Amino acid sequence: MDFTAVLAQIKPKLGCIADNLVLIENQIIKAREAGADLIVFPELALSGYFLKDLVPEVALRIDSPEIQKLIEFSRDISIAIGFVEETDDFHFFNSALYLEDGEIRHLHRKVYLPTYGLFDEQRYLAHGTSFRAFDTKFGRFGMLICEDMWHLSASYILAMDGATTLLCLSSSPSRGIEGDSPGSASSWQKLTSTTALFLNSRVLYCNRVGFEDGVNFWGGSEYIAPSGESIVRGTLFEEDFITAWVDEGSLRRERIFSPMMRDENLFVTMQELGRIAGERGR
Description:
Strand order of the largest sheet: 5-4-3-2-1-16
CATH class: Alpha Beta
Number of helices: 8
CATH architecture: 4-Layer Sandwich
Distance between the termini: 48 Å
Order of helices and strands: EHEHHEEEEEHEEEHEEEEEEHHH
Shape: globular
CATH topology: Nitrilase/N-carbamoyl-D-aminoacid amidohydrolase
Number of domains: 1
Largest sheet: 6 strands, mixed
Strand content: 25-35%
Number of strands: 16
């Protein structure tokens, strides 16, 4: 079905759950009043990104008052949001929730935790272990958290599990320069466009802005159609409220014109990956 999505390109405060929750609630109210059906927030929107030793201090359990408050908000608008999750066995995950109709529809834990360049997530966080598509009132979705999307198998698994819309929650800092924009912005735009094109899928990419520890996040959140075309894109380096009209017709047309998913042979893929795994095992 057709729906309106808002990409909330916000500037969270590092380690300030209470302040960030107020910011998030205001964005939800604004989106709801604008008639949006879905609002997507960045990776770790509730806590900020470069947490390091703050991870246990800002971690939230699923039954925490903060999460329960967001669940209540989802009775009127669907919500995708990132946070630090604490489990009963005191593991901490970079997680994302999809909330709808007053309940948790899906929880994704970031699988690929970067440790190169200025990233050091594996020191403080545990790995997720799965990619699963899930049903929403707008069709079948898949969720990725930032680095997850740079691993081709992640988006492929979600597409083969029936996802026609991919939500990517990101905290991508500026790295390098290409013309008037960061090199990381150009790289992400190529990635999201290529992913949408080859999987005949829609991509809703939400990135944050602001500074943490002298590092700048570039924003540029966008909606990419199944053709690979960027339909709407947020500003660079500034907070933004991006509204995207996501229509079912464009998905149908692209899957008729370029039926990549119809012709994809999952069983050949599984067979050959099994062979490769077996050969490497020897």
